[in-house]
Design goal:
Elements lengths: L2 H44 L4 H7 L1 H7 L16 H18 L7 H13 L2 H10 L8 H21 L3 H7 L3 H16 L6
């Protein structure tokens, strides 16, 4: 086994690990965004903090810090450079030759591959290749793309773990939870409790 193949195997394992970590973080946050909302509202109620007034006085800041959801463009893939695009195109062509329904492949599996391409889910694309014995050209571009995907995923994990919801989830006692809410109120409304 060549050094590039060994590096590829190591990077695949690392990508699988960080993707798994990101899925875990998203799963936790699906529940804890709501929990945080309920907790901080109850905290404000218990401390007689007028949230409506704070929201009104700081509406501009609230709009800046809590942006409205942006409609996701579907079918549009933005690549870092031409080499990245070519790696994806080569993989997709190989997948299409094997899985396209017009060529005797399975429609459901082909749709999964198309979705992975649309989402630029490199890990899923590589899994599809592995599961269907589609040979992958292991070269410098492939390794760079894997490294970039790992780096981007780690950055996303870091960003998600910096949220107030994650901080609340990480707390083990009420004092910690109260401090998370205090920091949130200070950050969002520049509000500090007077003792």
């Amino acid at each position: 086994m060549s050094i590039e193949q060994k590096k590829y195997k190591r990077l695949r394992k690392e990508l699988q690990f960080v993707q798994s970590e990101l899925e875990y973080v998203h799963e936790v946050l699906r529940e804890w965004h709501q929990t945080f909302e309920e907790y901080y509202r109850q905290y404000c109620k218990d401390k007689d903090i007028d949230l409506e007034k704070l929201n009104e006085e700081n509406s501009k800041k609230v709009d800046q810090l809590i942006p409205k959801p942006v409609k996701k463009e579907t079918g549009v893939i933005k690549y870092e450079n031409k080499k990245d695009k070519n790696v994806f195109k080569k993989l997709y062509k190989k997948i299409a030759r094997k899985l396209h329904p017009d060529l005797g492949g399975d429609e459901k599996q082909f749709q999964e591959a198309a979705k992975a391409m649309e989402e630029k889910n490199f890990e899923k694309i590589l899994d599809i290749c592995d599961n269907h014995d589609i040979l992958i050209d292991i070269d410098k571009e492939m390794l760079k793309l894997l490294e970039k995907q790992i780096s981007d995923t780690k950055e996303q994990i870091k960003k998600e773990k910096s949220t107030y919801s994650w901080n609340l989830y990480s707390c083990t006692n009420d004092k910690c939870k109260d401090n998370v809410v205090k920091n949130f109120l200070k950050h969002l409304f520049n509000y500090e409790e007077t003792k």
